[in-house]
Design a protein that fits this description.
homodimer, mainly alpha, Arc Repressor Mutant, subunit A, 8 helices, about 65% helix, about 0% strand, elongated, DNA-binding, HTH-type_TetR-like_transc_reg (chains A, B)
DNA sequence: GTCTATAATCCGATAGAC
DNA sequence: GTCTATCGGATTATAGAC
């Protein structure tokens, strides 16, 4: 409705215009719902509280594509900020620590859902942004998770192929989240808590009792 | 280029018109690539070998939406046919049987990739179709996979929470596939073979040595 | 069943008053 | 910075010849 007047003294000059921010919000919501091609500038203007059909949008962005690109960037920054929240101290009891770590990861995916939805829906339209986000989410996320995992399992024997174990864990968490998002139901109707504790138990059992690979005779 | 003339004797009367089929092919390819809103009927006509801009499309479908809906239905049928391929006999050696089962599941996801891409990209546009496909893929797939799993593990002790174990396995396979599709890379750069054998090993270890849940004192 | 041609609408983007 | 008004082009869909 009205701007909270932060331009009175010129002190907070770096703050983005509220209207601009509302346009980004509207763009995010609509592109998530209808996709880039299904969202019109008129729709965005209307949801942002501007007169639909007026070009007011264009006083803030050169084109629809520019606005959507900025939405991606903003969501990536948010995702990175959310990730920093997870830097908590180590916990002693491995099963509970792991279960909590996995639950945290599921919460994290829930929080960055907008970004994930954008990636899924507009896959292929902005390859540069996708590559950048992929690097940030996958590489950074994977190395950090690997650190957490080894820390949580500090007094367990190492797994035979820790990197593959990591891939399985990350895939499971990702897949559980996406199945819920896309179908509105959990796989096999299993709750997040049950999922987390089962996955944690799997990891711990595997690191407690690493079986010999059949056909692989270690001396 | 030219139709393989199967209308010569009227014998194969149930075969769909080749042009109609080409329109569906073109629609699938373009909607996968650009989304529903980003695909125009003119594009579809051009890719289907019709004169772009002519309404020839409309001699076969009432609207773009109708064609896309039919694409969904066709892909669902294909996915169901592909699933029937997996009904193979049981294998004796559990680790290898499980690894092969997981690899088969990954192959299956690769084959139904078009359907998965459609679901991801157009999520929310056709709720009825999504619900129908969700029921078919999730429910049917889950019960069948549960059967396979218990069969492959026939001489192993049961897991404490088989349904949750199933959810983890299905989530992992789904997540591995989707991460590859959306980012063009495997999670943690782990190959499908490595992924499958690691996941199989996890399952087997968990069913070989089911640990007591801490705080849960079973008599 | 495919074509040319076109109607009717929608959309992205701009110009200029306030 | 927002509005009214509008241009030019793209898009869905139809009409009618062949």
């Amino acid at each position: 409705m009205q701007e909270p007047s932060c331009t009175g003294n010129g002190y907070v000059s770096q703050v983005a215009s509220p209207t601009r921010e509302r346009i980004l919000d509207a763009t995010l919501a609509l592109v998530q719902e209808r996709g880039f091609g299904g969202t019109t500038v008129t729709d965005i203007e209307e949801l942002a509280g501007l007169s639909p059909g007026s070009g007011s949008f264009y006083r803030h962005f050169r084109s629809k594509e520019e606005a959507v690109r900025e939405v991606y960037e903003r969501e990536l920054e948010r995702a990175q900020r959310h990730r920093e929240t997870f830097e908590r101290g180590p916990v002693d009891d491995p099963p509970q620590a792991l279960t909590r770590r996995i639950t945290e990861q599921l919460d994290y995916m829930e929080r960055i859902k907008p970004l994930i939805t954008l990636l899924a829906r507009e896959h292929g339209r902005f390859p540069d942004l996708e590559a950048k986000i992929g690097r940030s989410l996958l590489d950074q996320g994977i190395t950090e998770e690997a650190d957490h995992l080894t820390r949580d399992l500090h007094d367990h024997p190492a797994h035979g192929d820790p990197r593959a174990l990591l891939a399985v864990v990350i895939s499971a968490i990702t897949g559980y989240h996406l199945a819920r998002t896309f179908f509105g139901r959990s796989p096999a109707d299993v709750t997040p808590e049950r999922f987390a504790s089962t996955l944690a138990e799997l990891i711990i059992t595997a690191t407690l009792d690493p079986p010999d690979t059949p056909g692989d005779k270690t001396p």
